[in-house]
Write a structure and sequence with these properties.
With about 600 residues, the protein is an alpha/beta fold. The chain has 14 helices and 29 strands. The protein binds adenosine-5'-triphosphate and magnesium ion (2 copies).
Length: about 600
């Protein structure tokens, strides 16, 4: 389905959901602004925004901001940026906030009390749990004394909650549901609670009480006239309480989808082999004081390319279209999907293969002097930017007397199974007319490293080489670029880092020392200049360049022939380009 990410809307779960309610589609993506989005959220964005787009409907980005202690402005900004990056800017009909509706939600809470469908309860957490059948929800269930208090009393107490008479845990508003129902979501859920650190990013100190998810979500869906409220399957049981509350307030007709929003649940996307939990990533970013030792930080920040937050995936250079294709390839059903990171990388690799140009890049250069060429030799070669797509164009690279090749492509001693450069052996230089043969080499006695290889250039009569290697010429070849290349491997040695010890810091011992390998002296050929000017690669909706501004670094993407897919990192300066390897060329190349 690589060319058809829309297939998920034409078949299966999302087709059925649309058939159930074919009228104008209005969806919402409702993150809590308490952290950065991760790869799983890309599915939720693809499903909600994509479904609306496919059916010519609209989608809201709704910040579910009902937990003031955990919410921060930087998360609002980043989440919005990610939605746009994924290409849904034009479909983003409106940004809304649950907090926009705090007044109306409060009024409806009073209305619930007046209708005898809610009451103020003073039970402790343990008492509430006991009435809900105890720890495992299997014991006897019973109503507390507060449930039957007069409506007027609950109303007065609710206002007292609002006005600050109670501290957290001393009073909460509960919905009067049905303890005989087998669904725990019907056992008098909380609707409002008193919050200690009550300052809210948008509403300031106006509220001391805040509505719960169960009270807020369905009502905000109604206010915003959402047609399809798509969420993940952990909310299956909540569908009953969702409908129940809407019915109590006449937003919905019992057993009918005729009026009001309709909740349906799809499976989550879990990516294995990496950490997605906010609390755990925070440990990786900041380090932490474990009970017996101090654990240092492991990654640069939340956007470190080894993480799978969306900011990290973007910084690493994955195009947004590749992410959406990946979601489309996995499909949307009611079952959770668990995949390994290698499957994601495979999908990205296929996407990049078709969409980005090629350049010659040498990660770990060693100098080769082709002794039988004159000092000012410059054999002009016409090099295509994409071997399979002539429309991408080509550029000139000159073969010069001095070239740089990958240290790995040379062996001091030849071997019949080795087909690249060695003393006495011919090897092709990509795009050059004739191969070269190594004659001798110079070694640094202190480091033991080869510092220079002396070679000869072949002619029409020389043997045909078995392999061609990549190279970069010297300055006479065109302006070459010095770069620091960062190559990423999996962050942990363990297959399943989630199973490591996160409480006492044991995870630290499993960090892969080669999770980031830096090549400080990499070289990029002169074509880089044009590639940089022509970015973004590929040209995608969410990354379109604003006229007159430089392209975002992560959109400057290319394949380094034989070395992998790269993009430019934000750490780049005028003096030095920093590259991130997005993925390897082949699946088994990582460490
Ligand atoms: P997490 O705890 O991983 O941050 P969450 O559910 O608390 O996840 P929210 O910010 O509340 O995160 O999520 C916003 C929306 O994204 C919700 O509708 C949620 O169902 C969806 N979502 C979150 N994680 C995934 C996932 N792994 N796969 C698919 N959808 C997801
Ligand atoms: Mg969350
Ligand atoms: Mg949540």
């Amino acid at each position: 389905a690589i060319d058809d990410p829309d297939a998920i809307f034409r078949e299966g779960f999302l087709k059925r959901v649309h058939a159930e309610k074919p009228r104008p589609v209005r969806t919402r993506f409702p993150p809590e602004p308490n952290g950065y989005l991760h790869i799983g959220h890309a599915k939720a964005i693809g499903v909600n925004f994509g479904f609306a787009k496919y059916h010519n409907g609209i989608c809201f980005l709704r910040f579910d901001d009902t937990n003031p202690q955990k919410e921060e402005e930087k998360y609002f900004t980043s989440i919005q940026e990610m939605v746009k990056w994924l290409g849904f800017g034009p479909n983003l009909h409106k940004v809304t906030y649950s907090s926009d509706h705090f007044d109306r939600l409060y009024e409806l809470a009073e209305e619930m009390i007046r209708r005898d469908k809610a009451y103020v309860c003073h039970c402790t957490k343990d008492e509430v749990n006991l009435g809900r059948g105890g720890k495992d929800n299997r014991g006897e269930r019973f109503a507390c004394a507060h449930r039957s208090r007069p409506t007027e009393e609950s109303l007065a107490e609710f206002r007292a909650m609002r006005d600050g008479k109670y501290g957290p845990g001393e009073a909460h508003l509960r919905m009067k549901q049905d303890f005989t129902n087998g669904n725990p979501q019907m056992w008098d859920l909380a609707a409002y609670r008193v919050v200690k650190e009550n300052h809210h990013y948008r509403t300031g100190d106006k509220w001391r009480i805040y509505p719960t998810y169960d009270f807020t979500h369905c009502l905000c869906d109604s206010f915003e006239e959402i047609s399809h409220s798509l969420c993940t399957t952990e909310f299956v049981l909540s569908r009953t309480s969702y409908d129940w509350l809407l019915e109590q307030l006449d937003f919905k007709i019992p057993n009918s989808e005729e009026r009001g929003p309709m909740q349906r649940e799809y499976g989550r996307l879990n990516v294995e082999g990496t950490i997605l939990s906010k609390r755990r990533i925070e440990k990786l970013v900041k380090g932490f004081k474990a009970p017996s030792r101090d654990i240092p930080s492991v990654v640069r920040d939340w956007d470190d390319p080894r993480l799978y937050t969306l900011v990290a995936i973007r910084r690493r250079g994955v195009p947004p279209g590749a992410l959406l294709h990946f979601v489309g390839e996995l499909g949307v059903t009611t079952a959770d999907t668990s995949i390994q990171v290698v499957r994601f990388e495979h999908s990205v690799r296929k996407y990049l293969e078709r969409t980005v140009p090629r350049l010659l890049v040498v990660l770990d250069p060693v100098k080769v002097v082709i002794e039988n060429l004159p000092n000012d030799y410059a054999e002009e070669l016409d090099v295509p930017f994409h071997p399979k797509d002539p429309n991408v164009g080509s550029h000139k690279v000159a073969l010069t007397k001095t070239v740089y090749i990958e240290r790995d492509d040379f062996r001091e001693e030849d071997d019949p199974n080795f087909f690249r450069l060695a003393p006495g052996k011919w090897v092709g230089l990509l795009y050059a007319k004739y191969p070269i043969k190594a004659e001798s080499f110079v070694k640094d006695s202190s480091t033991g490293l080869v510092t220079e290889i002396k070679a000869t250039y072949g002619d029409a009569d020389c043997p045909k080489p078995k392999a061609r290697i990549h190279w970069v010429g010297d300055s006479a070849s065109g302006k070459t670029f010095e770069a620091e290349a960062r190559v990423f491997n999996s962050l942990f040695k363990a297959q399943n880092p989630n199973a490591l010890d996160w409480e006492n810091g044991g995870y630290y011992d499993s960090v892969n020392p080669e999770s980031e390998v830096i090549y400080p002296n990499a070289l990029i050929e002169c074509g880089f200049d044009e590639i940089r000017r022509r970015a973004p690669w590929p040209a995608e909706a969410g990354e379109a360049q604003i006229e007159g501004t430089a392209a975002a670094p992560y959109t400057i993407r290319f394949q380094g022939l034989r070395t992998g897919y790269f993009c430019v990192d934000v750490d780049s300066t005028d003096a030095k380009v920093v590259l991130n390897r997005i993925v390897t060329l082949k699946e088994d190349e990582g460490k």
